[in-house]
Write a structure and sequence with these properties.
heterodimer; A: alpha+beta; Glutaredoxin; 7 helices; B: 498 residues; alpha/beta; Rossmann fold; Ubiquitin-like (UB roll); 14 strands
Chain lengths: 160, 498
Amino acid sequence: MPAARVFDIEIARAVIDRKRSTPGAALPILHDLQNQFGYIDDSALPLIADALNISRAEALGVVSFYHDFRRKPLDGRLLKLCRAESCQAMGCEDLVAHLETRHGIVPDDAESVASIHVETVYCLGNCALSPAALLDGEPIGRLDSDRLDAIVAKAREQTR
Amino acid sequence: MAAAIASEARRRGLDFSIVRTGSRGLFWLEPLLEVETPEGQIGYGPLVAEDAASLFEAGFLVGGGHPKALGRINDIPYLAGQQRLVFARCGVTDPLSLDDYRRHHGLAGLARALTLGPEATVEEVVASGLRGRGGAGFPTGVKWRTVAGAQAEQKYVVCNADEGDSGAFADRMLTEGDPFLLIEGMAIAAVAVGATMGYVYIRSEYPHAFDAISRAIDQARAGGLLGASVLGSGHAFEVEARLGAGAYVCGEETSLLESLEGKRGQVRAKPPLPALSGLFGKPTVINNVLSFASVPWILEHGAKAYAGYGVGRSLGSQPFQLAGNVRHGGLVELPFGVTIRELVEGFGGGTRSGRPIRAVQVGGPLGAYFPETLFDTPLDYQSMAGAKGMLGHGGVVVFDDTVDMARQARFAFHFCAKESCGKCTPCRLGSIRGAETVDKIIAGKDRQKNVELLRDLCEVMTDGSLCALGGLTALPVLSALDHFHEDFAKAPARVAAE
């Protein structure tokens, strides 16, 4: 996952123009914007609305519907932690508790400014190796508290 | 691991080729390495990078003995006990080599479909008895027949690769391990119904699968499997991979179509059926990954051969996925009719924690929880429905005796609330009221009254929801309540988290 970069309206315009004529372009454009900047800046919404001939409300409606799209910049690393049934059966909720008590990290905390963000996801399709996670897009199986400690320590090291 | 082997080989001045295959579905033995020898493929696993040197010392290149040697891979009971039709190539071939795919019977199904012609191809799929593997189990051939009969200047083929069920990973494994099979299946559908454009909608939680299918599509185009003339037949067919954005409900077909059109993934009311008015309002074949991936085998070997597998009206093979607290988690492809017990105790070898199995959830977050007394239920569409469950996508999740089933019931509502598209009230509000009601039961407030209320709510959600998300949430809830009622009657000492 590319690091968050400063939002630039001209770059955003170019990104949007690249795919505006693709059928059903909204999701591909939003993914491209998020890849470019790490999030979707609200000032891109009128541009999207204009390019796709939809209202701003509709553009906002699409962005806010999908869990993936972030509307604030993200610094640091992103750990997507699976909390669905298969991972529950292998103790993912213990890992969530460990994150909070040991590291003060609460999943899905929008106000968090930590060097590592933890997001809840439901299923990464790695259920034979639960508990599963995705660290900046790389799958991790059989996650345990030691590995979690190492990931958090490394993330904090990198942002120091 | 591959890098460690390659560097060790360089150090020793040895020359051999390393092929990165897909997964065999033997996850507890991975990373798994196989060596081609005159005696067959010899396996070694589960490996760590530090094993590289000792493997060379043991002479693994000729199948030498090593503490992690597994013998002939095809003799491993877990694999030997399966009947792999769809997953025959997965873990054997180089997933991104079209030549390798052809060498292993790839494209034989499409070639036969082109010889048979569209009508006969559709009828072959009808005769095979193949039912949608995504969960609903609708006959695939009948769906294709409807699209084939529709008049329109543009038709679409859409692959639903938004496999969101916990415990299910067959779509991911296949898309990463044998992506050409999926493309071939979609191409057969396109030729059969007269569609020229296809989309694979794949969830963003599967970045590697998205990468694999995107690269495979490029190669298929370069190799003449896609493009203006599929294998020189004159049929045009293009495929594009699209990434979802973390919405479980987009696995529901009409919600997926909305999402592909660039809208919020809200469910559409049916009718009209997607087969008549689907993507951009045009006739659309929309099937799951495993449905498309079953078709090439059917065309290659004939409908009769396929229908020879399975039981009753559940014909063919089903890739089951063993997950959760299980010793030998992995992919087990078998004809329908195998029992839960044969899967979780036989193949799975019991729990990973070593504790007794208490519950097994079949069919993802909307599937029922089964107690030990029902483990002899066969896994096919009818038997599952008879036991008030469903097969879904074939995911089987094992829980040991530490599980609290009241909390699992609460989670079912919580999940539904979080993933509801919001269009219909029973799902949007019912799920929240459901979680609150389970909380009251756990806390010991008016238990009897609240259990009655819970059952009533489940009935409303089942009958009144627009799609399966709200409509099937009652399955995990009621199965937990019916089979594990003691967990709802505990002293209210512990308060549910969240």
